Amino acid sequence: MEPFCIEPAVPEELPKILEIYAAARRFMAQTGNPTQWQNGYPPQKLLAADIAAGQLYVLKRDGIPRAAFWFSIGADPTYQTIEQGSWRSDTPYGAVHRIASDGTEHGVLPKILAFCQKKIGHLRIDTHADNRVMQHLLCKNGFQRCGIIHLEDGAPRIAYERLPSDAVQPG
Questions:
Q1: pLDDT by residue (tens digit) across 140-168?
Q2: From the centroid of its chain, how far is CA 91?
Q3: Alpha carbon distance 169, 142 (integer Å)
Q4: Distance CA 26, CA 91 (A)
Q5: How far apart are CA 86 and CA 153, in angstroms?
Q6: For site-directed labelling of 74, which of 54, 82, 116, 155 has its Cα 20 to 30 A away?
Q7: Vertex 125, ends 124 and 129: CA angle to 5°?
Q8: Can you point out the beta strands (E) in 21-153?
Q9: Looking at the predicted structure, is the pLDDT value of residue 68 above 50?
């Protein structure tokens, strides 16, 4: 088995990426999170735009995408306002969204976070209140809960932040 790699997604990978998100939706529904990402979210059009913008990445093993995520460095509009808490730092950060796995690769989140941390040490991420699995994994990987943010459609999400000094070093 060859080692994994993370690289920008390309249009030819879109069918596999859609399968990854479908698998993630099934997993979330089975683990007590039946409402996040339902009804086909994220849609193909959004993923294609993310690929074109160079913001959608894939984690590959043996040349096959096994996980996908959105990553960008710079101010994220959904993080401009935070309620029931505050951000710990206003330094430049990277935002990570829509992490999904097909379920065949173990330890996806730490691998993705290590990749992002190499680009910028200050990271922000959010998740659904019902996504207990992700909440646990974020805390396990050095993130601290900061408050509540709202997506463009008004849906609330729990906001997390990890500063360079919080980072869990890859082992």
A1: 999 999 999 999 999 999 999 999 988 66
A2: 20
A3: 9
A4: 36
A5: 21
A6: 155
A7: 140
A8: 56-61, 64-73, 94-101, 123-127, 144-150
A9: yes
